[in-house]
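Subgroup meeting minutes
Present: P.N., E.W., G.H.
Scribe: E.W.

1. P.N. recapped why we're keeping a running log of single-chain structure predictions: easier to compare across weeks, and new members can see raw inputs and outputs side by side.
2. G.H. added today's entry (196 aa).
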Amino acid sequence: MPCLAMFRSLRWLLPALLALASASAAAHWTLTPDLRNVAWIDSDGHALRLAELHAPLLVMTMAYPACRKVCGTTTLVLSEVQARLDAMGIDAEFVIVSYDPGNDSQADWRDYRARRKLDRGNWHFLTGDTAATRQVARNLDLNFWSYHEHIVHDFRILLFDAQWRVVGEVDWDHIDRIDGVLSALPVNTRSARSQP
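Output recorded in log:
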Protein backbone atom coordinates (compact mmCIF):
# COMPACT_ATOMS: atom_id res chain seq x y z
CA MET A 1 0.00 0.00 0.00
CA PRO A 2 2.72 2.61 0.75
CA CYS A 3 4.16 2.09 -2.75
CA LEU A 4 0.74 2.68 -4.32
CA ALA A 5 0.29 5.92 -2.36
CA MET A 6 3.76 7.08 -3.38
CA PHE A 7 3.02 6.24 -7.04
CA ARG A 8 -0.24 8.25 -6.90
CA SER A 9 1.54 11.30 -5.52
CA LEU A 10 4.36 11.02 -8.07
CA ARG A 11 2.07 10.74 -11.10
CA TRP A 12 0.90 14.32 -10.43
CA LEU A 13 4.43 15.55 -9.94
CA LEU A 14 5.83 14.05 -13.14
CA PRO A 15 4.11 16.42 -15.62
CA ALA A 16 5.28 19.46 -13.65
CA LEU A 17 8.85 18.12 -13.53
CA LEU A 18 8.83 17.40 -17.26
CA ALA A 19 7.60 20.92 -18.00
CA LEU A 20 10.29 22.38 -15.75
CA ALA A 21 12.94 20.21 -17.41
CA SER A 22 11.76 21.41 -20.81
CA ALA A 23 12.03 25.03 -19.73
CA SER A 24 15.46 24.59 -18.17
CA ALA A 25 16.79 22.59 -21.13
CA ALA A 26 15.65 25.34 -23.47
CA ALA A 27 16.97 28.12 -21.22
CA HIS A 28 20.33 28.26 -23.02
CA TRP A 29 18.62 29.29 -26.27
CA THR A 30 18.34 32.91 -27.19
CA LEU A 31 17.09 34.63 -30.30
CA THR A 32 20.18 36.20 -31.82
CA PRO A 33 20.42 40.01 -32.06
CA ASP A 34 20.77 39.90 -35.86
CA LEU A 35 17.36 38.18 -36.11
CA ARG A 36 15.80 40.67 -33.71
CA ASN A 37 16.88 43.44 -36.09
CA VAL A 38 15.59 41.93 -39.35
CA ALA A 39 12.84 44.05 -40.93
CA TRP A 40 9.91 41.63 -41.30
CA ILE A 41 6.64 42.65 -42.97
CA ASP A 42 3.47 42.15 -40.94
CA SER A 43 -0.01 41.21 -42.15
CA ASP A 44 -0.87 44.91 -42.56
CA GLY A 45 2.16 45.58 -44.76
CA HIS A 46 4.16 47.41 -42.06
CA ALA A 47 7.81 46.74 -41.30
CA LEU A 48 8.43 45.27 -37.85
CA ARG A 49 11.66 44.40 -36.13
CA LEU A 50 11.36 41.91 -33.27
CA ALA A 51 13.56 44.25 -31.21
CA GLU A 52 10.62 46.72 -31.28
CA LEU A 53 8.41 44.34 -29.29
CA HIS A 54 8.36 45.12 -25.58
CA ALA A 55 6.58 42.63 -23.37
CA PRO A 56 7.65 40.50 -20.43
CA LEU A 57 6.85 37.41 -22.51
CA LEU A 58 7.19 36.77 -26.24
CA VAL A 59 5.61 33.69 -27.80
CA MET A 60 7.10 32.69 -31.14
CA THR A 61 6.66 30.01 -33.77
CA MET A 62 6.43 29.54 -37.52
CA ALA A 63 3.48 28.67 -39.77
CA TYR A 64 2.14 29.40 -43.23
CA PRO A 65 -1.40 30.25 -44.37
CA ALA A 66 -1.81 27.41 -46.89
CA CYS A 67 -0.95 24.70 -44.33
CA ARG A 68 -3.81 22.29 -43.71
CA LYS A 69 -2.39 20.15 -40.90
CA VAL A 70 0.23 21.26 -38.36
CA CYS A 71 -0.46 25.00 -38.57
CA GLY A 72 -4.09 24.46 -37.54
CA THR A 73 -2.83 22.72 -34.40
CA THR A 74 -0.28 25.48 -33.87
CA THR A 75 -3.00 28.14 -34.06
CA LEU A 76 -5.25 26.27 -31.62
CA VAL A 77 -2.40 25.85 -29.14
CA LEU A 78 -1.37 29.51 -29.50
CA SER A 79 -4.97 30.56 -28.83
CA GLU A 80 -5.03 28.34 -25.74
CA VAL A 81 -1.72 29.82 -24.54
CA GLN A 82 -3.18 33.32 -25.03
CA ALA A 83 -6.31 32.44 -23.04
CA ARG A 84 -4.27 30.97 -20.19
CA LEU A 85 -1.86 33.91 -20.12
CA ASP A 86 -4.87 36.26 -20.00
CA ALA A 87 -6.23 34.31 -17.03
CA MET A 88 -2.80 34.57 -15.34
CA GLY A 89 -2.61 38.32 -16.04
CA ILE A 90 0.56 37.99 -18.14
CA ASP A 91 1.13 40.31 -21.10
CA ALA A 92 2.66 38.67 -24.15
CA GLU A 93 3.40 39.39 -27.79
CA PHE A 94 2.73 36.53 -30.23
CA VAL A 95 5.00 36.26 -33.27
CA ILE A 96 4.30 33.87 -36.15
CA VAL A 97 6.89 33.89 -38.94
CA SER A 98 6.01 32.47 -42.36
CA TYR A 99 7.73 29.29 -43.53
CA ASP A 100 6.88 30.25 -47.13
CA PRO A 101 7.90 33.86 -47.79
CA GLY A 102 7.89 33.36 -51.56
CA ASN A 103 4.15 32.62 -51.57
CA ASP A 104 2.70 34.23 -48.43
CA SER A 105 1.39 37.74 -48.90
CA GLN A 106 0.02 40.20 -46.38
CA ALA A 107 -3.45 39.44 -47.80
CA ASP A 108 -2.91 35.71 -47.14
CA TRP A 109 -2.00 36.44 -43.51
CA ARG A 110 -4.96 38.84 -43.08
CA ASP A 111 -7.31 36.15 -44.41
CA TYR A 112 -5.67 33.54 -42.14
CA ARG A 113 -6.16 35.83 -39.14
CA ALA A 114 -9.77 36.63 -40.03
CA ARG A 115 -10.76 32.98 -40.57
CA ARG A 116 -9.32 32.06 -37.18
CA LYS A 117 -10.47 35.22 -35.36
CA LEU A 118 -6.88 36.16 -34.45
CA ASP A 119 -7.36 39.91 -34.53
CA ARG A 120 -5.73 41.01 -31.28
CA GLY A 121 -3.04 43.67 -31.63
CA ASN A 122 -0.44 41.60 -29.79
CA TRP A 123 -0.41 38.95 -32.56
CA HIS A 124 2.11 39.55 -35.35
CA PHE A 125 2.09 37.46 -38.56
CA LEU A 126 5.36 38.14 -40.35
CA THR A 127 6.94 37.46 -43.71
CA GLY A 128 10.59 38.08 -44.54
CA ASP A 129 13.16 37.09 -47.09
CA THR A 130 14.18 33.47 -47.62
CA ALA A 131 17.56 33.79 -45.89
CA ALA A 132 16.08 35.36 -42.74
CA THR A 133 13.29 32.76 -42.73
CA ARG A 134 15.77 29.89 -42.81
CA GLN A 135 17.91 31.57 -40.18
CA VAL A 136 15.00 32.07 -37.77
CA ALA A 137 13.87 28.46 -38.34
CA ARG A 138 17.37 27.24 -37.44
CA ASN A 139 17.45 29.51 -34.39
CA LEU A 140 14.06 28.19 -33.23
CA ASP A 141 15.12 24.60 -34.04
CA LEU A 142 12.23 24.20 -36.49
CA ASN A 143 12.97 21.95 -39.45
CA PHE A 144 11.07 22.39 -42.69
CA TRP A 145 11.31 21.33 -46.32
CA SER A 146 9.24 21.43 -49.48
CA TYR A 147 7.43 18.31 -50.62
CA HIS A 148 5.55 18.71 -53.90
CA GLU A 149 3.44 21.85 -53.33
CA HIS A 150 3.49 21.67 -49.54
CA ILE A 151 5.88 22.53 -46.77
CA VAL A 152 6.50 19.81 -44.23
CA HIS A 153 7.54 21.23 -40.87
CA ASP A 154 7.94 20.76 -37.13
CA PHE A 155 5.62 21.93 -34.38
CA ARG A 156 7.22 24.00 -31.65
CA ILE A 157 6.21 27.15 -29.84
CA LEU A 158 8.92 28.94 -27.88
CA LEU A 159 8.36 31.37 -25.03
CA PHE A 160 10.99 34.07 -24.57
CA ASP A 161 11.54 36.58 -21.79
CA ALA A 162 12.07 40.28 -22.59
CA GLN A 163 15.79 39.62 -23.29
CA TRP A 164 14.83 36.95 -25.86
CA ARG A 165 16.02 34.04 -23.71
CA VAL A 166 13.90 30.90 -24.01
CA VAL A 167 11.92 30.33 -20.81
CA GLY A 168 9.50 27.65 -22.05
CA GLU A 169 8.54 25.45 -24.94
CA VAL A 170 5.44 23.70 -26.19
CA ASP A 171 6.05 20.88 -28.66
CA TRP A 172 4.39 17.58 -29.51
CA ASP A 173 5.70 16.12 -26.25
CA HIS A 174 4.22 18.93 -24.15
CA ILE A 175 1.06 19.83 -26.06
CA ASP A 176 -1.12 18.43 -23.28
CA ARG A 177 0.89 20.12 -20.52
CA ILE A 178 0.50 23.80 -21.35
CA ASP A 179 -0.45 24.62 -17.75
CA GLY A 180 2.78 23.04 -16.49
CA VAL A 181 4.87 24.96 -19.02
CA LEU A 182 3.16 28.26 -18.15
CA SER A 183 3.27 27.71 -14.39
CA ALA A 184 7.04 27.15 -14.65
CA LEU A 185 7.59 30.60 -16.22
CA PRO A 186 10.12 32.76 -14.35
CA VAL A 187 8.80 35.61 -12.21
CA ASN A 188 10.25 38.27 -14.56
CA THR A 189 7.81 37.19 -17.30
CA ARG A 190 4.86 37.89 -15.02
CA SER A 191 5.47 41.62 -14.63
CA ALA A 192 3.72 44.54 -16.27
CA ARG A 193 4.51 45.34 -19.89
CA SER A 194 7.95 46.92 -20.15
CA GLN A 195 8.36 50.32 -21.74
CA PRO A 196 10.54 50.87 -24.82
